[in-house]
Every structure is written in C-alpha cells, then in structure tokens.
Design goal:
Elements lengths: L2 H16 L8 H23 L7 H26 L19 H13 L3 H12 L6 H8 L5 H11 L19 H15 L7
Length: 200
C-alpha cells in the first residue's frame, strides 16, 4: 500500500469515526462500516511498520493509531447505543478516571516496540497520555521498552501526571541502574507534585 493509499484509509476512518447515527436506525450498517475501517487501519499500520526510510513515517503512524482509537471509541458508543436499558432504577456508575484497559495497553506496548527511535516512542507517549490514565505497574512496563535510563526518566516523567496510584510510584525508582537517574526523576516528580491536582 502506498502512502497515498494509507492517507485515503486514514481519511475514511476519521470520517467514519466522527460520524455517528442520529438514531438507532442504521446501527448495524454503521457498525459494519466502522469494523471495515478499523481493519483497513490495522492493515495500513502493518504495512507502514515494514516500510523503512518513508518520509514522515512516524507522523503517519501516529495519525493511523489516533484514527484507530477514534474508530474503536465510536464502535463502543454504537454498541452502547444499541443496547436496551434494563428495567429498574439506573445503576450507579463510578465517577473518576480509570486506567488504560489491558488490551489497549498491550497494543500500546506493541506500537512502542515497533518504533525505531526513542524520540518516536516518546512522541507516541505524549499523544497517548493526553487521553489515558495509567497505573504504576503500567509505567514500569513502558519503561522496560526503553534501552537507556535517561529515556526511562523521560517516559516515567511523561506518564506521572496521569498515574492513578501515585502512592505506589516509589516502585519505579528501583528500575534504574544509577542513583543519579533516580534523583533526576525524583526531582521532576517533586516539581510536578507542587502543581498537580489530586487524583479523584
């Protein structure tokens, strides 16, 4: 698939991902379109992974992954819309952020490992962290993708503001080889703590 073909797939997926039916009518057709767009995105991502030296490769990959997440979210909304409300009083839904679900997190780890350079991996994390929350254990898994402690410091610092169990974040420091890197991250965490709101 050429870059032009992948761009076409991206435009299709973005269109389908943002177009939601006004009513339940056409629910199955929209669901099928979204499933087809999602498969096209997955195919395009696989092709792009195998291509080397493509100009703007990391940008295209990021846009494909963002579009894939939008399609998945749209499919989930369609599925919820198509369900009938159960009889009886409404069920209380917990309010507050939830950590990235295991399936999507496994996909993130795979996407990070498929990128060639740490700068691309950190760019991907910057995009993901805007919309997701994490647990300390997930932060440690992300750190394990990086080869050098300086890169692990950057990754952990990027994720820290979106960590739900910050009381357990001390576990991260044990994953560094040198105390100097521990101190660098600890200093950045302390600075962030002065301005970060508490997690609810």
């Amino acid at each position: 698939m050429t870059c032009r073909g992948m761009t076409g797939v991206l435009v299709l997926a973005l269109t389908l991902g943002s177009a939601m039916p006004a009513s339940a009518q056409g629910h199955r057709g929209a669901q099928a379109d979204l499933e087809e767009a999602l498969q096209s995105l997955e195919d395009a991502a696989r092709v792009l992974e195998g291509m080397r030296g493509v100009r703007g490769r990391s940008v295209l990959m990021r846009r494909i992954l963002e579009a894939r997440d939008r399609v998945i979210d749209a499919m989930e909304r369609l599925e919820y819309r198509g369900r009938r409300q159960p009889p009886g009083p409404p069920v209380a839904v917990p309010v507050g952020p939830v950590p990235m679900d295991p399936q999507r997190f496994a996909g993130l780890l795979g996407d990070l490992r498929n990128l060639s350079f740490a700068s691309e991996q950190l760019d991907l994390l910057r995009d993901v962290v805007r919309h997701q929350w994490f647990l300390t254990a997930q932060v440690r898994e992300v750190m394990g993708v990086f080869s050098f402690d300086s890169e692990k410091v950057e990754a952990a610092a990027l994720l820290y503001p979106k960590v739900l169990d910050r009381q357990d974040f001390y576990q991260v420091y044990g994953d560094f080889t040198f105390d100097s890197d521990r101190q660098k991250l600890r200093q950045r965490v302390m600075e962030m703590d002065r301005s970060l709101p508490p997690v609810r």
